[in-house]
Structure to design on (178 residues):
């Protein structure tokens, strides 16, 4: 019986150590559970997350973890379709999907009534922040045009003495370049 017994420090096949040296760091990223939970909690609370494309940034501006950890965790979420990603001006923007909300709710052991901030309705009193409709307490904008109201006389037809252009009654003989 040819049984392969692997001891600690040995690879499963010859040359595996040399191969792992060639792999990019993104394939070997180990992120502490504490950092992972911090990023997940922030993402669930806000519903969105942004990070500058700076892999050497010591700390993410909103979450107390290295920026690289945030980027790599979100890359993983993107591949699982738990977030959607946008990239503009050296910044990543990630938005939670419904699948991502369910995953994080299960991972963080949150009840079903807790939702990200992006899904909460804003509680503004009625009427605040809206513009009043036209004609309310607002004064008129200026004198009415010839022919009645604001728009009735606008391009309604040729006027006497109108200049050049469409429907104009200008003299083409005196026009420049004539």
């Amino acid at each position: 019986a040819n049984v392969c017994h692997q001891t600690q420090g040995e690879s499963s096949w010859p040359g595996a150590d040399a191969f792992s040296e060639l792999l990019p760091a993104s394939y070997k990223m180990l992120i502490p559970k504490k950092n992972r939970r911090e990023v997940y909690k922030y993402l669930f609370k806000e519903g969105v997350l942004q990070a500058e494309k700076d892999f050497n940034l010591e700390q993410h501006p909103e979450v107390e973890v290295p920026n690289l950890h945030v980027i790599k965790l979100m890359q993983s979420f993107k591949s699982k379709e738990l977030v959607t990603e946008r990239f503009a001006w050296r910044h990543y923007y990630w938005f939670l999907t419904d699948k991502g909300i369910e995953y994080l709710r299960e991972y963080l052991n949150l009840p079903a009534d807790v939702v990200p901030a992006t899904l909460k309705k804003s509680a503004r009193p009625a009427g605040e922040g809206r513009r009043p409709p036209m004609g309310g307490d607002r004064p008129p904008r200026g004198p009415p045009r010839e022919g009645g109201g604001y728009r009735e006389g606008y391009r309604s037809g040729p006027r006497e003495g109108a200049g050049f252009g469409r429907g104009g009654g200008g003299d083409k003989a005196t026009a420049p370049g004539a």
About this structure: The chain has a mean pLDDT of 76. Helices lie at 16-22, 33-46, 67-79, 98-107.
